[in-house]
Amino acid sequence: MKLHEYQAKSVFAEAGIPTPGSELAESAEEVVSAAETIGYPVAVKAQVQVGGRGKAGGILLAEDEDEAREAADSILGMDLKGYTVERVLVEEAVDFTDELYVGVTMDRSAGRPVAMVSRKGGVNIEEVAEEDPDAIAREHVDPSFGLHPYQARRAIYDAGIDREIAGDVSSVLTTLYDLWDEKDASDAEINPLMVTGEGEVIAADAVMNIDEDALFRQPDLAEMEEDSYTDDLERKAGEYGFDYVRLEGNVGIIGNGAGLVMTTLDLVDYYGGEPANFLDVGGGAKAERITNALDMVFSDENVESVVFNIFGGITRGDEVAKGINDALSEFDEIPKPVVVRLAGTNAEEGMEILNADLVQVEETLEEAVQRAVENAQEAGA
Ligand code: GDP
Ligand code: MN
Questions:
Q1: What pLDDT, on the 0 to 100 scale, is given for residue 365?
Q2: Cβ distance 50 to 79 under 8 Å?
Q3: Does the pTM exceed 0.85?
Q4: Measured between alpha carbons, how far is 79 from 344 in angstroms, rounded to an integer?
Q5: Distance from Cα 38 to the centre of ligand 2, integer Å
Q6: Which whole-number Å values give the CA distances from 161 to 69, 121, 153, 166, 195, in the listed order?
Q7: Which candidate, 9, 157, 280, 381, has a CA 20 to 30 Å from the CA of 310?
Q8: Which residues of the chain have pLDDT under 70?
Q9: Which residues contact 156 (CB under 8 A, 6 or more apart)?
């Protein structure tokens, strides 16, 4: 579960990490009144859970009321990488001389948490890790002891952080590690940790992802979850009870079982297509679930073609086939071509039942995916 920036900042602030004064706003009026309380200049920041908001126009600075209004008008309601911006964080703008990075995550290959510091903050840290890995200082942590003070100091020294701010950065890093541990986070990150001309450090951004399986013992954080769907389709998926992830391609994918859906995604990529989503309808694919799944993919305006990949187990292939027929016969015209591959229990019966006027049936997974990719390419041509 991903926290919004404003939520993560409140968690960080409560633990003593310096954060700018801020208020959440949903309209231009609220932005202006928040800015007046906080004092100009302010930063107006889209509250959607994607990175790189700055570059995408989701963060604007405002010096006065006119600019605050302009910033609100341009950010509220905008589409940011598939998310509609409904709220902004209005924040005391930080006058910075430097942008640092601090983060804590689980290093799976080491089997230990790792605390990281870099002077190259304010940019995508994954890119830094790829292009200049030495620019990130890392300390692996023994979770039974936590991050030792000497480790924090060593990381800060290795990262080349100025001595004047080393103590403050060190206490931010230590607090961030403690939070990561206490709150059952999978990641906790401050990028950028801004350094001001007066030599203060302040968390200008905040990322915190919580392990879903631990939410039962983090009731305060679990409560924050309900408003975590900002993408209309993800909200809909939540209502339908589907596991769904929106992606950027145009081949809509529906399957039963996470592994099967992942395989389908990989094959779409292999055959030169781009998946539009991950959608696992789970077991018992009755007509209603199929109708809902089709509603999901057809509601995604990027989708040009759809592939069903169903493995009959407890759910029998003939039932699924009936469900697909029923769902598709509701349409006067099928919005986008649908390819179906059935395997497993009663697959042959299922394939016979499928109505060839409504769907394209393929015997193998490879053929089905290839056909769906071709359909998408034809639509795009
Ligand atoms: P992200 O792009 O979604 O990670 O959003 P961030 O909160 O990290 O902001 C991206 C960039 O916007 C920062 O690295 C800064 O360059 C700029 N920015 C954000 N907040 C402020 C602020 O308060 N003052 C100034 N001057 N720049 C800011
Ligand atoms: Mn950031």
A1: 96
A2: no
A3: no
A4: 41
A5: 21
A6: 38, 12, 10, 6, 11
A7: 381
A8: 226-230, 284-285
A9: 117, 137, 166, 169, 170, 173
Measured from the alpha carbon of residue 54, the closest ligand is: 1
For residue 54, the ligand 1 atom closest to its alpha carbon is: 2
Tokens of 379: 């639509």
- Check 6, 83, 101, 177 and give the catalytic one: 101
- Both structure tokens of 374: 């071709």
Q: Is the CB of 122 under 6 A from ligand 1?
A: yes
What is the H or E stretch that residue 366 is in?
A: helix 365-380
Name which residue sits closest to atom 15 of ligand 1, judged by CA: 122
| Amino acid, res. 77 | G
**pLDDT score, position 305:** 98
> What is the distance between the alpha carbons of residues 276 and 321, in angstroms, rounded to a whole number?
23
Alpha-carbon torsion (114, 116, 122, 127), positive or negative: negative
Q: Is residue 85 in contact with ligand 1, taking CB distance under 6 Å?
A: no
Pocket of ligand 1 contains residue 204 by CB under 6 Å: yes
pLDDT digits (tens, 9 = 90+) for 114-151: 999 999 999 889 999 999 999 999 999 999 999 999 99
Note the pLDDT of residue 285: 59
Cα 195 to Cα 24, 157, 166, 205, 304: the distances in Å are: 24, 16, 11, 13, 47
pLDDT recorded at residue 10: 97
Residue 217: what pLDDT?
95
54 lines ligand 1 (CB under 6 A): yes
| Cβ(253) – ligand 1 distance below 6 Å | no
Extract the tokens encoding 73.
Answer: 């008008």
Distance CA 82, CA 300 (A): 10
Q: Which one-letter amino acid corresponds to residue 251?
A: V
- The answer to whether residue 157 is catalytic is no
Output phi, psi for 225, to 5 deg. Answer: -70, -35
Short-list 334, 347, 340, 346, CA closest to 361: 340
Q: Is 164 in a helix, a strand, or coil?
A: helix
Cα 204 to middle of ligand 1, angstroms: 7
Per-residue pLDDT at 179: 98
Closest alpha carbon to 85 in 115, 53, 130, 41: 53
Ligand 1, atom nearest to 52 Cα: 2
**Whole-angstrom distance, CA of residue 31 vs CA of residue 208:** 25
* 91, 189, 319, 362: the active-site residue: 189
